[in-house]
Design a protein that fits this description.
single chain, alpha/beta, six-stranded parallel β-sheet, 6 strands
């Protein structure tokens, strides 16, 4: 696989990508690897991680498995502990798992689950990775945290575009992504002075 050089080169950088085995995650993993980064491929599924790592490794990508559940503090601590204080230049919080729904059909517990998966997990990962992000700043001058939000953190879906309420982009997803955007602002203000940049991206629809 050819690697990007110049302004977009990530040669010598290490990136941890959560939710790497989903449709968007796979494309981000490939883009990071194409730019020269070593990619720590995360999912809670050992099988899906192994499959993606194998496919990317065959393309001469620098990839390593990093299996843990982003909602499980013990698994996070164990996985990040294996980095042993090495620099982490990029943390991408992308993990999500859920179903469709509407305000009428949603259960209150789904809001709690979505918030835990989106916002609380970003908080957990930033906390766990802070020593490694700070080491990246010490060695290379900066580090970056990228939180994958959504257009539905800023606008609501048109129900007419969906076949049924159960297929609609759900309100608990949009509410969690809106919270992630605001949390990113807080984190950016807190850690930017250290050289740790925090940003959120809000993609629109993309082919599955």
């Amino acid at each position: 696989m050819s690697q990007t050089t110049g302004a977009f080169s990530l040669a010598g950088k290490t990136a941890l990508l959560t939710g790497a085995t989903g449709h968007l995650g796979e494309q981000m993993a490939m883009a990071l690897a194409c730019a020269g980064a070593k990619v720590l491929v995360n999912s809670r599924s050992q099988q899906r991680v192994a499959s993606l790592v194998e496919r990317l490794a065959k393309q001469d990508c620098r990839v390593e498995p990093c299996v843990f559940d982003v909602t499980n503090p013990e698994q996070i601590a164990e996985a990040i502990g294996r980095l042993k204080g090495t620099p982490l230049h990029i943390l991408i919080n992308n993990a999500y798992s859920g179903v469709g729904g509407s305000v009428e059909t949603a259960e209150a517990s789904q809001y709690q689950d979505s918030y835990d998966m989106v916002v609380a997990s970003a908080h957990r990962l930033l906390h766990a990775c802070l020593p490694n992000l700070r080491e990246a700043v010490r060695q290379d001058g900066d580090a970056s945290v990228i939180n994958i939000a959504s257009m539905y953190g800023m606008v609501s879906p048109d129900p007419r575009l969906y076949d049924s309420p159960s297929a609609t982009n759900p309100p608990f997803y949009g509410a969690a992504k809106a919270a992630l955007i605001q949390w990113s602002r807080y984190a950016a203000c807190e850690f930017g002075k250290e050289g740790i940049r925090v940003n959120s991206l809000s993609p629109g629809p993309f082919p599955a």
